Amino acid sequence: MSGATPISAARGKLIVISAPSGSGKTTIAREMLSRNSSLRFSVSATTRGMRRGEVDGEDYFFLTPEEFRRRVSRGEFVEWEEIYGDLYGTLQSEVDAALRGGKHLLFDVDVKGALSIKRAYPEACLIFIRPPSLQVLEQRLRSRLTEDAEALGRRLERVPMELDQAPLFDYQVVNDVLTKAIEEVHEIVQLHLRTP
Ligand code: ADP
Ligand code: 5GP
After folding, report:
1. Is ligand 1 within 6 A of the CB of residue 30?
2. Half-sphere exposure of residue 123, counting CA atoms within 13 Å on the CB side?
3. Is 7 within a domain?
4. Which of 20, 38, 41, 125 has the fewest CB within 10 Å, making it most exposed?
5. Which one of the ligands is nearest to 41 CA?
6. How many domains does the chain have?
């Protein structure tokens, strides 16, 4: 059987963190996962290459473009997007397994993916992480040393479109001082997990 698990029948909650690349969403998402044992990371599929330190099946399911497209044609994704020339998507099986098991899921997806998840699961909580400024965002991306100049340019090009979508999110948190941003997101997560 396929299709989305109705949220009303599930105990699990969905929390989506989204932001322009380099805003700090992965850093904040990791902290939320370490603070909340009931929260599980939604492992997405992607066709991008593995970064140093990443583990297949933990950070992403790393697929070839052929395998990714095969899964798209089988309807295996809740949503998927082409981002910076690679494909990224949320597998329906990940969401279904968590919700059926009563686990809360934390998503780290792009802004379009976040809004697609909201359409499929209107009770999902969408959190947008804002960088304090474009200059700071660029600095953080450069110091992360994970992209070459071309890939960095592609990430920066997308920022205006991403910031335009921020008002559609349930919450916006500015990540200037990291500890403060973490506390703010933690409060939102706790509030959402406690809401019946
Ligand atoms: P994203 O997942 O949104 O692309 P990351 O979490 O990888 O962003 O953060 C980008 C870089 O900025 C990382 O090197 C991270 O350590 C750093 N970083 C994140 N938040 C802050 C902050 N508030 N102040 C300074 N550096 C930060
Ligand atoms: P990165 O390559 O830095 O890991 O991720 C690039 C972008 O893809 C980030 O904005 C990240 O949130 C987004 N992303 C990761 N997984 C998914 C997914 O399953 N769906 C969508 N739409 N975006 C994703």
Report:
1. no
2. 17
3. no
4. 38
5. 2
6. 1
